[in-house]
Amino acid sequence: MAQDILQRLTVILAGRKQASPESSYVAKLFSKGEDAILKKVGEEATEVILASKTGNKDHLVHETADLWFHCMVLLAQHGLSASDVLDELERREGLSGIAEKESRSRD
Predict the structure, then answer these.
(1) DSSP assignment letter at 106
(2) Alpha carbon of residue 14 to chain centroid
(3) pLDDT at residue 20, rounded to an integer
(4) Residue 71 has what pLDDT?
(5) Are the CB atoms for 73 and 13 separated by under 8 Å?
(6) Rounded to an integer, what is the distance from CA 51 to the centroid of its chain?
(7) Residues 92, 70: Cα–Cα separation, whole Å
C-alpha cells in the first residue's frame, strides 16, 4: 500500500514536469528549477526539526510528509523516483551503518 502511493505520486510528478506552471504548484516548482526545489527541501527539513522539538506527533507526521513529497519532486527533477531510494534502502538492509558508510567511501 505504501509503495502504491509512492508509485502514484511518481506518475503524477512526471506529468507535472510537462504541465503549465499556472496549472499546478509542482509544475511551478519545476519551472523555477533545481534551486527552488532545493530551497523547499531545506525549508521542509527545518520544519521537520521544529515539529520534532514541539513533541506534537501529528505535526511531525504532517511536516515529514511535506519533506518526503518535496524530496520526491527533487528526485523527479533528476529523472529518479522513490523506487530508486527504496532499492538503495533494500541494498543496505542488514548492513551495519559503519559497513555501509565504508562502502560508500570507496566509490
Answers:
(1) T
(2) 14
(3) 95
(4) 98
(5) yes
(6) 18
(7) 23
Round to whole Å and give the CA distance between 14 and 17: 5
CA distance 17 to 83: 18
Q: Do you know the residue count of the chain? A: 107
Distances (CA, A) of 72 to 17, 36, 46, 49, 56: 12, 14, 17, 19, 24
Number of domains, the chain:
1
CATH code of the domain containing 6? 1.10.287.1080
Q: Which helix (H) or strand (E) holds 71?
A: helix 57-77
pLDDT number for residue 70: 98
| pLDDT in single tens digits along all 107 residues of the chain | 677 999 999 999 999 999 999 999 999 999 999 999 999 999 999 999 999 999 999 999 999 999 999 999 999 999 999 999 999 999 888 877 676 567 766 65
- Domain range for 99 is 2-105
102 vs 100: CA distance, rounded Å = 5
A 10 A CB-CB count for 33 gives 10
